[in-house]
Design a protein that fits this description.
Strand content: 15-25%
Helix content: 40-55%
Number of strands: 16
Structural class: alpha/beta
Largest sheet: 8 strands, mixed
Number of helices: 16
Distance between the termini: 32 Å
Shape: globular
Length: about 400
């Protein structure tokens, strides 16, 4: 437990991921509270004209979200703010979020001051967090997670000036992987705290390895092109006749569902390949614990907590080279890395593990141990140290002036 107890204002927009606002931010908030700190969350809920007609899913989330709640002992506020899509984001950035959050932040800060603002995701939330932190006179920490960097910090293309300013002016910038940090660090300048802080996994939810059918493969993710589920299916199909006991389970929903279903039928693998649709998180973890291989050779993965969960559940994980998961998976040591979407390379890994499972028992265990070290408690301890360093620097600078 930390000697100094912090009061932290977290900011993240309301996401539709079956969590109170954003599952990984909530896990971090809970872990920080477990260390004795107080976390308050402002999670702006985006609304737009004609939202019920144009974005019915977003409208349902907004309608079901209260104005405020206490979730796992954490006070969460849900102000509504105008969102106008990509054009509005480019024009206004996080100003609508800051405008919606500011009255709540000022009131709470007046009642008992916050030590810092910690925003998650760069473009809108980071901008709003910076505005609120400067208004309250406290430092601002920012964590970047993936799409916020991949969409706005593209190699060879100049980022928006506002996003560069947010990256530069955040007093501390944390990235969940080295890959993400490499995209944004060149814009940081000198003097600010810049660190890699991986997300964690809730081990209390991960079941122990259970007896399973040999050669059971699972893939979990949104059914979109970059996840390469179709490529995983093709790799599996090449081995299906050779290993008639092998199975593939694909968990998720998305735009490629009909295409995958048609291809499974075309290959005659309806009894061997299962499309589950969306499943509850606990059920996904249970199925991971019943599987041998977790295969997701996707691109655009800032971190990939799903790999960590699969490894913790006892799967041998197959990810893609050049992605965020490289921080955790060392190819051939505790998992496998293949070029993203490479059918031949994915097939080779499957074939080798299918043919010689006894060779990979130690690799599987190394992967399990590596994943089980990445707890939210460890994440919170690292974030706490950064926050304390940040506050110490601010106090030192104020004392000098």
């Amino acid at each position: 437990m930390a000697e100094k107890k912090l009061r932290i204002l977290m900011m993240i927009h309301r996401q539709a991921d079956n969590s109170p606002y954003c599952f990984y931010v909530h896990e971090q908030a809970k872990a920080l509270c477990a260390r004795g700190h107080e976390v308050v969350v402002i999670s702006c809920v985006g609304v737009t004209p004609m939202m019920g007609r144009l974005r019915p899913g977003q409208a349902r989330v907004a309608e079901a979200t209260p104005k405020e709640a206490v979730v796992d002992g954490i006070a969460v506020y849900y102000p509504r703010c105008l969102t106008l899509g990509n054009a509005g984001e480019r024009l206004l950035g996080g100003r609508p979020m800051a405008r919606a959050a500011m009255p709540i932040a000022r009131r709470l800060h007046g009642e008992r001051p916050f030590d810092l603002v910690h925003a998650h995701m760069l473009p809108r939330d980071g901008h709003a967090g910076l505005i609120v932190a400067r208004a309250l006179g406290v430092p601002m920490a920012l964590t970047v997670h993936g799409t916020d960097i991949f969409h706005y910090f593209i190699p060879g293309k100049a980022p928006w000036a506002r996003n560069v300013r947010i990256a530069r002016e955040a007093d501390a910038l944390m990235a969940v992987s080295s890959l993400l940090l490499s995209h944004v660090a060149p814009y940081r300048g000198e003097g600010g705290i810049t660190r890699v802080v991986p997300n964690g996994v809730d081990l209390s939810l991960v079941p122990e390895k259970t007896p399973n059918t040999p050669r059971a493969v699972i893939s979990v993710g949104t059914l979109k092109k970059r996840k390469c589920m179709d490529r995983t299916l093709e790799a599996f199909a090449r081995l299906a006749d050779e290993y008639p006991d092998a199975t593939l389970t694909i968990v998720g929903i998305g735009e490629m569902e009909a295409q995958l279903s048609a291809r499974i039928s075309e290959l005659g693998l309806q009894k061997r390949v299962t499309l589950t649709g969306g499943l509850a998180h606990e059920e996904v973890l249970r199925r991971m614990a019943q599987s041998d291989l977790f295969v997701l050779p996707s691109w655009g993965e800032g971190y990939g907590i799903v790999y960590i969960e699969a490894m913790a559940a006892g799967c041998i994980a197959v990810g893609a080279t050049g992605e965020g998961i490289e921080d955790t998976i060392t190819d051939g040591e505790n998992g496998f890395l293949v070029p993203a979407g490479d059918i031949e390379a994915t097939e080779r890994v499957m074939r080798e593990v299918f043919a010689h499972p006894e060779r990979y028992a130690a690799l599987r265990e190394r992967g399990r141990q590596a994943a089980r070290e990445l707890t939210w408690a460890r994440n919170a301890q690292t974030v706490e140290a950064i926050d304390l360093e940040l506050i110490g620097r601010r106090q030192h600078a104020q004392a000098r002036h």
